[in-house]
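Researcher: Quick test of sequence recovery. Tokens follow.
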């Protein structure tokens, strides 16, 4: 059946309506598997597929809820020969046909989304020796590219090896996922030795496991590094699954985990022309208590405040997180080579590097940021394209 709703997706009809009943401004739809959808009139009318309610070109709503008739009624409700549900709305005398696949997928009592993001996979050195790795020579192919994007979500990182060493290569690959986010370090930043630098990243010193830009209210979800040169002794990239560390602390040190998820920590980044501040827990969770974010730029923490007991708990929990994040049992190490592109989930995967001898050669990475939601959006588009064949 042709889709008659304002949506890019098609909806397979896996369950057919067998009976309709109206009761107290609610359309009850009984499906052939026994499920009953309770669809309030206002809900049905708002999602009416007619062009007056939804613009067929933009697939966006034309009307607000306040513009719909105050007293809605259904004059006629029928199941068509092809299994659709046809309704006649009054007082508008509007006849519309609803796609059964769409109605069942969006049933308020039991929604069935077309695509669910794959589950995240926690990792340590014991179950993952290297980042999920993809061939630069094949990254133009849909299957290789989609594998890289999925790895950014599931494992919080992905590595493409063997790309051409060109300054524009970083943008060429990353912008296939989505737009690059500009920060106070610019749209693209160059990780190399810079005398008088405003960041530890532009020195030869080692960097412990951390996330970037914790001072921003919404710090970047993704970070990418493209290796242009790396001939120094040292400078090995170090990666830690911040979610795996948090899970370990939650299991073995529940009091510390509660502190890390509940007590706000101040962050600050003062520079000549900017000063960013925010104050949030080191570990952020959603309404269901699921971990969503690790905020761990350790050198940008501002002075912690509170009573003596709070400060003692703070340093105990902070030290515990550092202990596991820097433990080799939780780390994997990667020596980036020219032509390698490493992508990481900056709100999950902590990164760092060993120190290096600046006299031994040259080390140059080009970097940029992106929002995590761009990866999630791209995965939905990839799924849509797969289903379209």
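Model:
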């Amino acid at each position: 059946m042709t889709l008659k709703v304002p949506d890019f997706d098609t909806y397979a009809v896996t369950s057919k309506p067998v009976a309709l009943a109206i009761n107290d401004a609610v359309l009850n739809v009984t499906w052939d598997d026994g499920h009953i959808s309770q669809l309030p009139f206002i809900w049905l009318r708002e999602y009416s597929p007619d062009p007056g309610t939804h613009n067929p070109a933009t697939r966006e709503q034309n009307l607000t809820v306040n513009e719909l008739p105050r007293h809605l009624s259904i004059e006629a409700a029928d199941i068509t020969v092809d299994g659709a549900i046809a309704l006649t709305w009054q007082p508008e005398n509007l006849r519309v046909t609803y796609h059964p696949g769409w109605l069942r997928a969006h049933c308020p009592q039991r929604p069935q989304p077309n695509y669910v993001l794959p589950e995240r996979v926690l990792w340590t050195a014991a179950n993952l020796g290297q980042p999920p790795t993809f061939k630069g020579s094949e990254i133009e192919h849909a299957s290789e590219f989609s594998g890289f994007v999925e790895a950014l979500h599931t494992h919080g990182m992905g590595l493409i090896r063997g790309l051409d060493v060109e300054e524009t290569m970083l943008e060429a690959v990353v912008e296939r996922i989505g737009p690059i986010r500009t920060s106070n370090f610019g749209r693209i930043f160059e990780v190399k030795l810079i005398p008088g630098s405003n960041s530890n990243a532009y020195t030869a010193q080692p960097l412990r496991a951390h996330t970037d830009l914790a001072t921003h209210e919404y710090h970047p979800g993704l970070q990418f590094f493209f290796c242009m040169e790396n001939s120094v002794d040292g400078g090995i990239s170090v990666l830690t699954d911040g979610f795996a560390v948090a899970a370990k602390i939650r299991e073995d040190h529940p009091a510390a985990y509660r502190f890390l998820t509940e007590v706000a920590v101040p962050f600050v980044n003062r520079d000549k022309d900017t000063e960013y501040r925010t104050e949030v827990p080191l570990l952020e969770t959603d309404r269901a208590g699921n971990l969503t974010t690790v905020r761990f730029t350790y050198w940008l923490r501002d002075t912690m405040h509170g009573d003596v007991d709070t400060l003692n708990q703070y340093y105990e929990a902070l030290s515990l997180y550092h202990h596991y994040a820097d433990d080799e049992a939780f780390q994997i190490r990667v020596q980036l080579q020219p032509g390698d592109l490493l992508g990481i989930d900056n709100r999950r995967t902590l990164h760092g590097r060993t120190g290096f001898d600046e006299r031994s050669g040259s080390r140059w990475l080009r970097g940029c940021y992106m929002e995590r939601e761009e990866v999630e959006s791209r995965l939905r588009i990839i799924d849509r394209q797969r289903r379209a064949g």
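The chain has two domains: 17-105, 133-385.
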